[in-house]
Write a structure and sequence with these properties.
The chain is 24% helix and 35% strand. It is α+β, with helices and mostly antiparallel strands and 107 residues long. It has a three-stranded antiparallel sheet. The longest helix is centred in the middle third of the chain and has 11 residues, at 64-74. The two termini are 24 Å apart.
């Protein structure tokens, strides 16, 4: 939306709206995963302080600012997640999917 808020359209396809433009977090995740030195990543929409934003978690050898700069070269600036968090690991659930609840607890 023009105010910078993110509107979530639902879990199917995980589509969000930022600045009036639709974005799929998985597209950003794909670009993040293509950054040299990134072994695993996950991007999601998260509510923080009453506002929604994109947040990215990654496992890799590069620092957060290096990753942010690399993403800015690969995607439009408005698509770069507001929060980028480096982790030692990203856990999976027993069903083999990323444990989103565990990641969100790290915020």
């Amino acid at each position: 939306l023009p105010s910078g808020e993110v509107r979530i359209f639902g879990r199917i396809g995980r589509i969000a709206e930022i600045g009036g433009k639709k974005v799929k977090p998985q597209e950003i995740q794909r670009e993040l995963g293509a950054v040299h030195g990134i072994q695993k990543s996950f991007v999601d929409v998260f509510e923080r302080g009453g506002r929604n934003c994109l947040v990215a978690w990654y496992v890799g050898s590069r620092g957060v600012e290096e990753v942010r700069l690399a993403l800015r070269k690969r995607i439009a600036a408005w698509k770069v997640p507001r929060m980028i968090i480096r982790r030692k690991s990203i856990q999976n659930t027993s069903r083999g999917k990323v444990d989103i609840k565990q990641l969100r607890r790290s915020l």
